Amino acid sequence: MISARMNRPIRVLLLSGATIAVAALAAACGTEKISVPSSDPTHSGAVLFSQRCAGCHTLSYAGTHGSASNARTREITNGPSFDQRCERPIDRVLYAIQNGGFSGAIMPQNIVVGQDAIAVAQFVAKYAGRQAPKQPGVTPCIAQPIGTLPAAVALAHATASTAASTGSPPTPAVTAAAIGAAAHRKSAKPKHR
Ligand code: HEC
């Protein structure tokens, strides 16, 4: 019939409309809210995390869902969910960022560097592990010490922004070379930790 033929373009239009709607919804998933208040010194770390780490890690405080939720459909690049996994102390997180996870095999190294890496590490160390199941005899993540970063790195950070929150005074004497050297020492670490 003629009318069936005439309807076809309309059906195609409707269908592509639906596709666009689905795409818009999918895109919205990627822009889920960061729930760390902007007054929190780790807010910038949360933003960076949502931009750089979202594809492979879940951490609801940054609105990311990159970890696998089903073992049968997981992909090799799915990293641990930081809602579940405690990531303290903080120097461990920085090490993982520099090394590419602990194995160095799947996660790329140095996705964020310098101040950005420190900011992300601070955010992850603070907010990871909050949905970990409670286990008798295991100290909840939030009660575990968050630790400190190696001196040169911590000082570099203090000069950057949050001297007040870390309690260490800004030290103008810290040079980029010193920070670079510290970063180098870190990346030369042995494989296992
Ligand atoms: C391409 C996917 C991918 C991206 C992007 C990625 N990761 Fe990973 N990450 C992984 C995988 C896979 C592992 C676990 C495997 C391993 O440790 O080698 C991991 C492990 C880690 C670990 C160690 C966790 C543990 O307890 O074993 C930390 C911390 C970490 N990632 C932080 C980050 C941060 C922060 C970012 C963003 C700057 C990031 N990752 C980006 C895939 C990724």
Throw out a few tags for this protein.
single chain, 193 residues, mainly alpha, Cytochrome Bc1 Complex, Chain D, domain 2, 2 domains, two-stranded antiparallel ribbon, 7 helices, 2 strands, binds heme C
Structural class: mainly alpha
Q: Provide the low-confidence segments as ranges.
A: 161-189
Q: What letter string, H or E per element, gives the SSE order?
A: HHEEHHHHH
Q: What is CATH's topology name of the largest domain?
A: Cytochrome Bc1 Complex, Chain D, domain 2
- How far from one another are the termini? 72 Å
Structural topology:
Elements: H1 2-30, H2 43-52, E1 58-59, E2 64-65, H3 90-99, H4 114-127, H5 151-160, H6 163-166, H7 176-187
Antiparallel strand pairs: 1-2
Heme C binds next to α2, α3 and α4.
